[in-house]
Specification:
Blueprint: H1 3-8, H2 14-18, H3 53-58, H4 61-75, H5 80-89, H6 91-98, H7 103-122, H8 125-139, E1 143-144, E2 157-158, H9 162-183, H10 196-212, H11 224-233, H12 254-264, H13 274-282, H14 285-291, H15 294-299, H16 304-316, H17 318-324, H18 327-363
Antiparallel strand pairs: 1-2
Helix pairs in contact: 4-9, 4-18, 5-6, 6-12, 7-8, 7-18, 9-10, 14-16
């Protein structure tokens, strides 16, 4: 297929860019947490529920806006089995090999990520389980014998296996915490870390998500100290490497190939994709590097000087971060990256969470 044919077949209208609920919806419309009942008649709040620390973090506008850049940073640069799965089995990589990947594919891949996770985080239990079943079935195909051609002793990967599924969940939720602590303006104060107890509570609650995806119980952390110990246990899978992204069968960096081919297949209609990609993905990337831990930066191969500059960038970024979490921009991000169903899930969860916090304050 020629590049001309590819771009003609991938004209991007405004309607295609926005997408419909079907871009994100699987197994029917998701049921918001609290809208159904358990067998004992009590409300089914899903994995976390109102008043939880996870909802406190997740529902903040900063987390909603910066979720994709935070998670992408760690998942595409730090945890090697995820990088290997993207390299070998992701549609972007496959299309790059075929010469058909476009800028719209990059945009659509990123847009689906947030909205397809929202039902697991903000839906009732059945909704969360249905979405996980769908993702689990897709991930069954994401397996390979080689994580890193430069370190064959690491063995292979299996996205639906307990280890890699657990880390997929944890490398979604821990970066969310980093983004929240670095960029969320709250309590009338500049962004700041949660208390040690709040951070422990967040990690403990994330355990429900780790259980959903099939993590081994003995691995599931319940405190931040246990989370740090888990990183140490799997340190070899987070060690920096210059060869993880190299496709074993092609000998080329898969991400560079995706970018190269998408540029070759550029169509004038793709120009409308550039603003959201720049604002949501590119602009926060370097400040987000400074927002994560020093150990996370080292796992991505970020040197001392670049790391120090990224920390400074995260501080200098605060005025922009403040504007990006204001309602107009947040609504823009929710519509593009989270979708119509997630819009309802977020609104419902925020209302429940606000009520729970008010009730807690009244009884304090």
């Amino acid at each position: 297929m020629s590049a001309t044919t590819v771009t003609q077949n991938n004209r991007v209208s405004k309607e295609k860019m926005l997408g419909t609920a079907m871009r994100w919806r699987r197994f029917g419309e998701p049921v918001p947490a609290g809208r159904s009942r358990k067998e004992d008649g009590t409300p089914d709040y899903g994995l976390f529920g109102p008043g939880s620390m996870v909802w406190e973090v997740l529902l903040h506008p900063a987390s909603i806006v910066f979720e994709i850049s935070a998670q992408a940073l760690i998942q595409t640069n730090a945890y090697k089995p995820i990088i290997a799965g993207l390299r070998d089995r992701d549609p972007l990589s496959i299309k790059a090999r075929e010469g058909t990947v476009t800028l719209y594919d990059l945009y659509d891949r990123g847009a689906r990520n947030s909205g397809m996770h929202a039902p697991m985080w903000l839906g009732d239990t059945e909704t969360a389980e249905r979405m996980w079943k769908h993702l689990h079935n897709i991930h069954k195909k994401v397996t390979g014998d080689v994580i890193d051609i430069g370190k064959p002793e690491l063995g292979g990967y299996a996205a639906s296996g307990g280890r890699d599924a657990m880390w997929a969940a944890l490398t979604e939720m821990h970066p969310l915490l980093w983004a929240y602590e670095a960029f969320a303006f709250r309590d009338g104060r500049l962004p700041h870390r949660l208390s040690p107890g709040g951070r422990d509570q967040y990690i403990k609650e994330v355990g429900a998500y780790a259980r959903l995806v099939g993590a081994a119980e003995e691995d599931i952390p319940t405190t931040m100290a246990e989370m740090n110990a888990l990183y140490e246990k799997y340190a070899d899978l987070f060690a920096p490497s210059t060869t993880t992204k190299i496709m074993p069968d092609v000998g080329k960096d898969y991400l560079k190939e995706v970018i190269r081919v998408s540029r070759a297949n550029f169509h004038i209609s793709h120009l409308r994709l550039i603003p959201p990609l720049l604002l949501i993905n590119v602009l926060p990337s370097f400040p987000m590097t400074g927002a994560v831990s020093g150990k996370a930066r080292r796992s991505m191969g970020v040197g001392r000087v670049k790391g120090a500059l990224s920390v400074l960038a995260s501080k200098a970024f605060l005025p922009i971060a403040y504007l990006m979490q204001r309602p107009p921009f947040e609504r823009y991000v929710i519509r593009l990256m989270w979708g119509p169903d997630a819009t309802k899930l977020i609104a419902s969860a925020r209302a429940l969470h606000k009520e729970a916090l008010a009730a807690r304050a009244d009884t304090a």
